[in-house]
Write a structure and sequence with these properties.
six-stranded parallel beta sheet, four-stranded parallel beta sheet, elongated, 11 helices, 12 strands, DNA-binding, homodimer
Chain lengths: 344, 344
DNA sequence: TTGAAAGCGCTAACAG
DNA sequence: CTGTTAGCGCTTTCAA
């Protein structure tokens, strides 16, 4: 790679390497005569000089490299957005990111952390593929920032989606359309999802605000995949007419996909007979459904940006509590007014 | 980060840094007395020494870093698998990967390439988010390997999916089930997808092998998303009974999703009335459909591994032609025999 | 069997 | 305004 060194440029321009260094990195540039600067630049251009960042890093003790370690970030469909967010701000600020995927293996994680610290990265981000609380690894630097996960004990900068507010937005959408019998197709407790609890809190709060008594029968739980959503939706749709929901808020888009299937099997149409709201805004699901699904987006890109911004010191973070990133509602076509006989 | 240096270890062990270097990196280890080695190791442990890779890299001219630049790798749902494959072999061989996402911007790409070369990466991979042929950037090193794309002109090591064989496998599956009227729901030509052409070749070849005259009416084209698939499938299903397909090979899983929808609207069941095979094996689509979709998997993980292996010199590549990675068929439940009246 | 010494390519005081 | 010089932390001859 970089065959030609700074001394080559210096020789050709008839100056010292110190001068070359200054003009090329734009430091103390005011003190160097314009002619010299010009000569240096031309010489650099002529010999095809490219600075050697390794040497520079050794000297300056700054690598402009940031480490991003994750459990399985690359494998999940959302993860890309987080990466994109982090990468974008890194690029905007001349940083490069070293990505390490530990696949949830603790040994690999320790190794990765050591390798990154050996590589003298300037900053570090610790990312999870889904929102959860983590036991922070002992050898994670103090100033690392957590992405899509909250620290179990240690105080760390962290960012997670505001699931509670997202749940509220989803249910408000339904309430605003006139629904009163709104089911929540939740994930089963055994999955121990923090999102599940938070979204449910949002659901209950909006019901309360709207003066709707929560009906325990309308809180269904299933495996958070299409099959689970279908089964749960079927049970709900089998409820006697007066107790049957006119709308379903689903824990995620996949369950919503199942809800669609259940409705169609019953000969019900979305949104005329049943309104549905999902969560995640999963490309290739939400937008591809028929009708396109109204859902709540997980702010992966924004969280990625935020994490990188605080990692680079571009933004302050409160280490006492995770930053809550808003989850915007994405309105498509799966919400309508309740069927006439339920109207008020 | 690495506060403590090798000289600290040396001081504590009462030896020179040269000795420390040798024992810690296992070089010339035979020439150093076991006692000394022991002392050095203990000292290193005691002071918590961690080698500084930047200094080492400067000295050895080897960074053990590999650059992975892509157009939008992180944003697409498949991309993660390529990353995972590449990352896994990197990890297995003590390499770290720097990921740069250029978002298709040529300027950003040049910058990234320069930054990586300045960073003295030992190897480079140039990845695309979908199979296509690319004009190789001028400043991409000669020994970079192309991932999921083929070079337009230059001879480069490259790996792409064997789409043709994949198309054959898909259609063979249908032929083996007894189908003779097999449609191909293709992407429109304006998208200029190399996969589209190759899969079609596979489709035609298997038809030929089976002695089936291709019916031009059964080659439908649409936008390669669920909506397009649905529209195309509807048109096909509207054909008179004798000309109507009993099976559909879809360009991708999303179109297959649309085919399902069209079938259901017609009151047709998959696979009893209509068999469907997709392509991509897109998680969250293929497996979540009802019934689960038989499809052809894109070998992203394997391609990622392959690319990293040749990048690290672990494997030879023929620069004259891209390596074709097999696309395995994934049998689920969307293929059955043709309905009785079409049986032979 | 071990140590001294010379850099890898660059930056940053300090002189001039 | 520009050059000299002294390292950054490590590896690797060469000498002892």
């Amino acid at each position: 790679m970089g065959r030609v060194r700074m001394s080559d440029v210096a020789a050709r321009a008839g100056v010292s390497t110190a001068t070359v260094s200054m003009v090329l990195s734009g430091v103390n540039t005011a003190r160097i005569s314009p002619q010299t600067q010009q000569r240096v630049r031309e010489a650099a251009e002529a010999v095809g000089y490219e600075p050697n960042s390794v040497a520079r890093s050794l000297r300056t003790q700054q690598t402009r490299l940031v480490g991003l370690v994750s459990d399985t970030i690359a494998t999940t469909p959302f993860a890309g957005r987080m990466l994109a967010g982090a990468n974008d701000v890194a690029r905007e600020h001349g940083r490069l990111v070293i990505l390490v995927d530990t696949e949830g293996d603790v040994g690999a994680e320790r190794q990765a952390l050591q390798a990154l610290s050996g590589q003298q990265v300037d900053a570090m981000i610790y990312a999870c593929m889904w929102h959860r609380v983590v036991e922070v690894p002992a050898d994670l630097p103090e100033d690392a920032v957590l992405l899509d996960c909250a620290p179990a004990t240690a105080n760390r900068a962290a960012v997670v989606p505001d699931e509670r507010a997202g749940g509220m937005a989803a249910v408000r959408e339904l309430v605003a359309a006139g629904h009163r019998r709104i089911a929540y197709l939740d994930a089963e407790e055994r999955f121990d999802l923090v999102a599940s609890r938070l979204r449910r809190e949002g659901y209950l709060q909006v019901l309360a605000e709207a003066g709707i008594e929560p009906d325990p029968f309308l809180h269904a739980r299933a495996e958070p995949v299409a099959g689970g959503g279908r089964a749960a939706a079927r049970r709900l749709l089998d409820l006697p007419a007066g107790r049957r929901p006119t709308a379903m808020f689903c824990f995620n888009d996949r369950m919503a996909m199942g809800a669609y299937a259940a409705a169609h099997q019953r000969g019900l149409s979305v949104p005329d007979d049943l309104s549905v709201v999902g969560y995640d805004d999963q490309q290739l699901v939400a937008a591809e459904l028929d009708p396109p699904l109204t859902t709540v987006a997980l702010p992966h890109y924004e969280m990625g940006r935020w994490a990188m911004e605080v990692a680079l010191g571009l933004r302050e973070a409160d280490p006492a509590a995770p930053h809550l990133m808003p989850c915007p509602i994405v309105r498509r076509a799966s919400v309508g007014p309740p069927p006439a006989q339920f109207g008020d």
